[in-house]
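Closing statement on the flavin-adenine dinucleotide sub-project.
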Amino acid sequence: MADFDAIVVGAGCAGSVAAYELASAGKSVLMVERGNYAGAKNMTGGRIYSHSLKKVFPNFEQEAPLERRVVTERVSLMSPDANLTIGFRSDEMLKEGQDSYTVLRGPFDQWLASKAEEAGAEAIYGIAVESLLKDGSGKVTGVRAAEDEISAEVVILCDGVNSLLTAEAVGFKTPEPHTMAVGIKQVIELPSAVVTDRILAVSDDEGAAWLFAGDATHGHIGGGFMYTNRDSISLGIVATISDLMANSSTPIYQMLEDLKRHPSVAPLIRGGKVVEHSGHMVPEGGFDMMPDMVGDGVLLAGESAMMCVNLGYQVRGMDYAIAAGQMAGIEAAKALDNGNTSKAGLMGYQQALEDSFVLKDLRQFRRFPHFMESTSRIFNEYPALARDVMNEMFVCDGTPVKPLRKSVMPLVKQVGLLNIVKDVRGGVSAL
Ligand SMILES: Cc1cc2nc3c(=O)[nH]c(=O)nc-3n(C[C@H](O)[C@H](O)[C@H](O)COP(=O)(O)OP(=O)(O)OC[C@H]3O[C@@H](n4cnc5c(N)ncnc54)[C@H](O)[C@@H]3O)c2cc1C
C-alpha cells in the first residue's frame, strides 16, 4: 500500500488548490514545497483574475490577503521621450467573478496553502522533490526527496515553469529560448494613501494595472508592467530570452532602471523604497509548447504544463493554474475512487481541461506568440508613430497648421500603410 493517496509537488497556485481538492474529497495528500514556506520562491506581476479562485473558495474576498481590486486598466505605447496611454474602467469588469485583484505571492500563497492544510493535506516545506519513483512498467509511484522515497497512487506536478520533473514524467523537452521569457520585478513601498492618489483612485481598496509596449524593453519583444498593491507598487519587465540574447546590448535589469526613470513612470514611484527584487521565467510559447498533461500515475497542472498567456494587454497564468489545480485534484480523487490511476484512469483530467476555458483559451491564442515574435514593429515603429501623430495633434508653435491628414500621412507612410494593414490583420486573426 502506498504511503499517500496523492503527492502534490509545489505549493503555488496550482499545487495548493489540487491538494485542497484531494483533501476535501477525503484523500490522504502530501504537498511538498521546496521553499521554506509557500510563496517564498514565487513571483507574479501580478494581478489575479478572480473567476477560478471564486469557484474553489466562494468567499475568498473576505479571507484571502488581496491587495487592491483593479478598477483601472492602462495600456501604453512607450517611446523614450513619449507615452501614449489608453485608460479604461467599466462597471462590467467589476462584476463578481469578472473582477481582478493585485496580489503579492508571499502572503497569498501562504493563505492558499493554509486552506489545503486546513482541509487535511499534510505539507512539508524546505524540501525539493529530486526525482520521481517509477515501477517496472514506467508508472509513476512516488517521489524521491531529501534522500527519502515516498510512495503515492498518483503524483501531481505543480512545480512551475522550471520543472525538473516533467521530463521524467511525460518526456517533456527543454523549451527553446524563443518560447521562454524572463521577468524581473521590484516591489516599491509607498504609503497607501500616496498610491491611491497617484492612480486617481478614491479609496485604498482600488488599484490599477498598467502594461507598456515599446521602450519599456528598449524595443525588444516583451513589455513592462505596473500593478498597485495596498502600500506598494509592483513594477517589472518581461522579455523574450532569444531576442535578448541575440539582439540586446542592454541587460534586463538596466531596462527596468530605465523604465523607472521614464517621465511617465517616475512620478508614480517617486519617494518609494525598493523592498523586493525578484526574477522568474515566463512560458510564452503557448499551446504549441505544452507537454502531455497526463502520464501513467501522474498529472501536470499550471506552469509545469506551460499554462500561461501573455497578450500584451493581458497576462494570465494564475487563474489557469488555479483552475487546472482544481480539475487535477477532483479528477485524481475520482481515479482513486475507481482504483485506477493509470494514464487511462486519469484521462478525466484531460477531458476536464478540454471542456474548460484553460485549453480553449490556449488553443484560441496559439498563433499569438508567433505574431508577437514576427511583428517587431509593435515594439519600435508603432510607439514612435503614436508619439509623432500625437505631437502633430498637441504641439502648437505658431507656425501655420497643416490639415491633419497631410501631417499624419507621411508618418504613416514611413511605417508603410501595407505593413500596418498586415499587422492589424495578423493581430486580429491571432486573438
Ligand atoms: C514577471 C511575471 C509576471 C506575471 N504576471 C502575471 C499576472 O499579472 N497575472 C497572472 O495571472 N499571471 C502572471 N504571471 C504568471 C503566473 O505567475 C504563473 O502562471 C503562476 O504563478 C503559475 O502558478 P503555478 O502554481 O503553476 O507555479 P508557481 O506559482 O511557480 O509554483 C510552483 C511551486 O513549486 C515549487 N517547486 C518547484 N520545484 C519544486 C520541487 N522540485 N520540489 C518541491 N517544490 C518545487 C516552487 O517553489 C513553487 O512554490 C506572471 C509571471 C511572471 C514571472
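The domain at 4-67+105-175+288-364 is CATH 3.50.50.60 (FAD/NAD(P)-binding domain). With this model delivered, the sub-project is considered complete and its resources will be redirected to Aim 3.
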